[in-house]
TrEMBL record:
Sequence ranges assigned to domain Dihydroprymidine dehydrogenase in this UniProt record: 26-136
Ranges for domain FAD/NAD(P)-binding: 151-457
Record-given protein name: NAD(P)-dependent oxidoreductase
Cross-referenced NCBIfam families: gltD_gamma_fam
Record keywords, A-Z: 4Fe-4S, Iron, Iron-sulfur, Metal-binding, Oxidoreductase
InterPro entries: DPD_II, FAD/NAD-bd_sf, FAD/NAD-binding_dom, GltD-like, Helical_ferredxn
Pfam families, sorted: Fer4_20, Pyr_redox_2
The organism of origin for this protein: Cognatishimia coralii
Taxon lineage: Bacteria, Pseudomonadati, Pseudomonadota, Alphaproteobacteria, Rhodobacterales
Length: 477
């Protein structure tokens, strides 16, 4: 009788790839986890219970066929595992690194709920696709036939690039317009290398260009080219700009020198690691070296900032968040990593102002949690008389992002937007009320996860292809 290759969660314990020590990883911007070796990946994949109702799959926005590619990994069918993984996810090696698996696929794992520790789905997903790149299984896209239709995509982030990939596979002519000099959006300039090394993103960019996708970089829509010109050049347009406008802070001294935006800070650091010359870093404006750094916010961007500051050699790094640890929006895994690396968290703390013309401190109000708000989370309330000043030479605002005013920037008063400034689009297709104009990702959802942007991009591409095919059918009748 053949030996059962799966359901080993009772005898095999959960094991993550080895994590480099904080003392070592604080010295560089390389990813903190070592890759799985083949035997370990097979062992961990074999823990999957192959349950009849795979909650891991239903909790994944892309509905990745996780049980099957875990089975294939455990039984040595790795190239098949890659093909199955790639069938539903445009960037599995990126999701394996940066998805909050604890809140998505791994959070729904049945064996986790039975007390055996979840399958390490993200680490196996990363291993599968990293191996596919090493073995040469990842090829440029070669459509079965070219199509005459053309699609313009504004924004080279995960949503836009996922749509580009899907459309190109169908033979559509695709041009992507982006304001930056490298494609990838926040994957390239927002997320630090210790979570996502940049060669991983650049390989996907190269794959798309080798597949015939045209990237028009350093192209700011509304300045270098008009939105109307893009619409006139293509049969359909996808808006995938993301949300880049930082939420601001008020209070006394909010305009002091040394108070900077999170995205400016992270972009400077990532550019430096690409080898670019970054004047704002060299001047010290966006450099934490030797400084007392305070980061305000409790999301994943705040975690990226505090961990970057540690690596830049800050004297101290503190994170202020107005709620407690249990109510923070960011990943608990990232918070644990930050604490290991030396970050101090000041929970139930909110800024009320700043001292110094060049910032010298943050005036902090201590908080307690009161009654739940509309979202169900307890609202922070000020504790009177508990204020203090936290010393700071550099303050980084990581309070989240809002959409830019596209109606004004692009001179498009008819572009439908919500009261929050996001583009109003159909949920499943991304279609807007403007003929041939679609929108995907954060510019529709508000600041969200990379995996949701990928899902939106793929769904939108499918809807556009259906519309192109329907138009062909009508024309042929």
């Amino acid at each position: 009788m053949a030996k059962q290759p799966m359901l080993k969660f009772v005898t095999v314990e959960r094991d993550m790839p080895e994590k480099r020590s904080a003392e070592v990883r604080n010295e560089d911007f390389l990813e903190i986890y070592a890759p799985f070796i083949k035997a370990k990946a097979e062992e961990q994949a074999s823990r999957c219970s192959q349950c009849g109702v795979p909650y891991c799959q239903s909790h994944c926005p892309l509905h990745n066929n996780i049980p099957d590619w875990l089975n294939m990994t455990a039984t040595g069918r790795l190239e098949e595992a890659y093909e199955l993984s790639q069938a539903t996810n445009t960037f599995p090696e990126i999701c394996g690194r940066i998805c909050p698996q604890d809140r998505l696929c791994e959070g729904g794992c049945v064996i986790e709920n039975s007390g055996h520790g979840t399958v390490t789905i993200g680490a196996v997903e990363k291993y599968i696709t990293d191996t596919a790149w090493e073995k040469g299984w990842v090829k440029p896209i070669t459509p079965l036939a070219e199509r005459a239709e053309s699609v313009g995509i504004i924004g080279a982030g995960p949503g836009g690039l996922a749509a580009a990939d899907m459309l190109r596979r169908a033979g559509v002519q695709v041009t992507v317009y982006d304001r930056y000099d490298r494609a990838g959006g926040l994957l390239t300039y927002g997320i630090p290398g210790f979570k996502l090394e940049k060669d991983v993103v650049m390989k996907r960019n190269d794959q798309l260009t080798e597949s015939g996708v045209t990237l028009k970089l350093n192209c700011n829509v509304g300045e270098d080219i008009s939105f109307d010109d893009i619409r006139g050049a293509h049969d359909a347009v996808i808006i995938a700009t993301g949300v880049y406008k930082s939420r601001d802070l008020g209070g006394p001294g909010a305009g002091a020198k040394g108070i900077v935006k999170a995205l400016d800070y992270l972009t400077a650091s990532n550019r430096l690691n690409f080898g670019d010359t970054v004047p704002e870093f060299e001047s010290g404006e966006l450099n934490a070296a030797g400084k007392k750094v305070v980061v305000i916010g409790g999301g994943d961007t705040a975690m990226d900032c505090v961990r970057t500051a540690i690596r830049q050699g800050a004297e101290s790094v503190k994170c202020l968040y107005r709620r407690d640890r249990a109510n923070m929006p960011g990943s608990q895994r990232e918070t644990n990593n930050a604490e290991e690396e030396g970050v101090i968290f000041e929970w139930l703390s909110a800024p009320k102002g700043f001292t110094g013309d060049a910032v010298e401190g943050v005036m902090v109000q201590k908080m307690r949690l009161g009654a739940p708000d509309a979202s169900g989370r307890q609202s922070p309330e000020v504790i009177e008389g508990a204020d203090y000043v936290e010393e700071a030479d550099l303050v980084i605002k990581a309070l989240g992002f809002e959409p830019e005013d596209l109606q004004t920037l692009w001179n498009q008063p008819d572009l439908p937007v919500t009261r929050w400034g996001t583009v109003k689009a159909e949920f499943t297709t991304g279609a807007t009320d403007l003929e041939g104009v679609y929108a995907v990702g954060d510019i529709v959802r508000g600041a969200s996860l990379v995996v949701w942007a990928i899902r939106d991009g793929r769904d939108c591409a499918e809807a556009i292809l259906k519309k192109f095919d329907a138009a062909k059918t009508v024309a042929a009748e």
